[in-house]
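explain this.
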Amino acid sequence: MDMEKVFLDPKGATHRQYEALRAYFVERVGSGEAARRFGYTPGSFRVLCHHFRRNPDRPFFLASVPGPKTAPKRDPVRERVIMLRKQNLSVYDISQILAREDYRLSAVAIGQILREEGFAKLARRGEEQRLAITRPRAAAVADVRRLDLGTRSFRTSFGGLFLFVPYLVQIPLDEICCHVGLPGSAMIPAAHAIRSLLGLKLFGSARHSHVMSHVLDEGLGLFAGLNVIPKRAFLTEYSCRVHPGAYPVMMSRWWDGVRSMGLKTGTSFDLDFHTIPFHGEDALVEKHYVTKRSRRQKGILGFVVQDAQNRVFCYVNGDVRKEETGEEILVFADYWKQRTGRMPGELIFDSKLTTYTNLFKLTQLGVSFITLRRRSEKMLAEIYATPRSAWRQVQLQGISRIYRTPRIRDQKILLRDYPEKLRQITVRDLGHEEPTVLLTNQMRPSAATLIERYARRMIIENTIADAIDFFHMDALSSAVAMKVNCDLLLTLMASSLYHLLGTQIANGYQVAKSRHLFRDFVEASARVIITRNEIVVAFQKRAHNPLLLAAGFQKTNVKVPWLGNKMLRLRIG
């Protein structure tokens, strides 16, 4: 053995520090050379020297202290542990038995005893071989044929879901699922599966993985038309069975049903891309910018469009690749014309959503737009060099904010890939560190009107983020195998149902956030009374119940096809 190597290539951290400091202070080796020789960075080695100068008496070579030769907690029960393992009990079973005998020994310590004694791990055992202990109660298997609609009553924590049932009756969900060809079975038909997923989405349940704590609530199963809500394995697997081509068709048919109920759509829309973080291992998943974390990471890119007037999602797409992002705005414009017979009136979006070439295509289609222009260093230098006399001050009226009198510069410019003149509005003193630069093809409206409209878009962007957070779209991971397209579609459906609820309640709830409606009306327990011909949902007294009474919910009297055509009545306390 080369004894010199023992000193020049120390293994322990303390030994390495000693040799490095000795080389520097005794052998007068340069700081950089000593750091390189013993694997330090120059900076960390300087810090090491600094600490040594402050405490030169630091002991490098410590006298060994013999460890304990016995294990006071393990040794007294070693024989007992061995005897219990010979009864085919697991480390957890043994730990519980010892606890009842006043010996507190962890499963890890028990496992160490068994390894020392030469015991191998137990093979997987059946239920009959396991120790009889208290376990979570298992719910029945979901089966529409086992739904009990006989005379009975029960309490449910999901009473608020029945406020949406009259809307679901008018929207022919069963026909839509049949037309689209969604998968189903005799136990759980397609529409029942979708209602199960939709019920969890409407109730703001923190992902479908947490449904297991609610499987015994009869109200949740009754809303879906089942004896019990399906378990997590079914809910997370169901979306994988749906063909991707079914989602656009279902979205169109759903909107036909919603619009037939009088849901009005505006002409101005806010568009945005939203990255749904992905935490699994998949080589095909691309990296995208995540706004909440201010970084790029693996994620699924979803395209969402929200009606600016009603604040309801009206288009979603989770099949967008990086190379397709610029074209998605044209896809939406074409989709909207097919659904309504006309192009969208106005689109509001940020600078990275599409290209100048596609902006010109929007102009040719007769679609107005407002977007941000990316600010280069050269552009910022020109803006800052512009004399104060070139700016004029405007008064903003339609928004509530501190900065209501920004300075603007209104110009018509030419850009590459956009053969016509565009209107550019440069805004300063708007509360941002750098100027805001707007691009639009709208030449007639005043600059203040356009700035106010984009400022509202910034507020609505927060509304989009809030809705996404409430409907738990950001919670996708490798552990919850929920297809993004399915989750986006359910979000769109839930968003429109919440808007129908807010519209019927009125009193300012027409534009309320889903989270607000949930807190005031949907998060309500109730007693469900099933009679021969009726299903009565009796709500307990709550502060906002007078608004439900004023909106006529107590007059609800509708046949529910998936509940044996029994009449649904709502009794508001």
User: Anything to note?
Assistant: The chain has a mean pLDDT of 84. The CA atoms of residues 68 and 289 lie 54 Å apart. The domain at 3-54 is CATH 1.10.10 (Arc Repressor Mutant, subunit A). Residues 447-470 form the longest helix (24 residues).
